[in-house]
Amino acid sequence: MANFTGFPDNSTKGPKELKSMRIRIFDLQSGDRLAEDIFNSYGLHVLSKGTVLQDRDLSRLFQHHIDYVEIEQRSNAFLESVPDSKEEEAPAPRPSEELLASFEDAVAGFETLFRQAMEEGQVNENDVNESFRPLMDNFREERDVVSLLLMLNSQDDYTYQHSVQVGMLCYYLAKWLGWPEAATQMAGKAGFLHDIGKCRIPGDILNKPGKLTDEEFAEIRNHPSYGYEILRASGFEEEVAEAARQHHERTDGRGYPNGLSGSQIHPIAKVVAVADVYSAMISTRVYKEKKDQLSVLKELYRMGFQELDPLMVQTFVFHMLPNLIGKKVKLTNGESGTVVLNHPTDPFHPLVQVAKDRFLDLSVEPDLEIVQVSLT
User: What range does the domain containing 213 cover?
Assistant: First the structure.
């Protein structure tokens, strides 16, 4: 297998007079300047006041579970758009119409590729680029990945939407891991194509709503090998083909098709595995209801102790958790509220505002859990 290196006073007459502003981590931009020293929950110094943030600094803040920071004011145009804390809460950010259109185009493009692979036994790389690259160009600067997935996820065309989602999530995870742009784009493409081998699985098995027989499950387990064959026949890079073949391998050796473990599994395949599991669990399928975003992140975190690569899982989970701040949630007691803060040592049990002056700290409410996350 080829080695892939490098992975690893609010007057309407003018702008608001702010010397600094408090901002969520995923709203930060490269070039923002810190207005204060940053310390983590253990009191360790993370970044100094005056630091001009670059991508590596943003990753460091995520790794230390920092949710908010104070930055120096940006341009007047930006400040005019920042709501005062006493004003009505701003609506949750939504993906642009252009992004939504490119997502739909990518789903339709993957369906065409899927049928092409079914009929011809291979796919055209130019068609892959035309389907996925416009979407990648649109979503690469989007930081609020949870909002993005909540907007784009539906129960229609699961196989096709799932492949597009996995491609997006692989791109983000590779970027969060600090991989160079070429490797990041390759990871995105590998995620987009990881399930192409399912084109050889009979539709009555692939879409069966009930439990599969042993023979049917054995056929499903062939799709990674089918994908490898199709992608190699199509002339794709060995790394992309291996990602298709290995995305169901597990670090403990209990995956398939070859029972690989640990370092035997290609790094891109490990990225695809994390994205594949996450996307599958947040999606509605014919045989399984989707789970809420937070419970999926908890389950993924658990899997990082045995089945999935721990570094990649932790990187993914702790980049996703800050995206939950500002989201509407429903609790097991029937109450609804808004996530306002992640707990520094128990990030899966955040602080939820359920009324103007009433907050629930889920880290000290053992009987309360979040059962649904939404934009509104």
Answer: 97-321
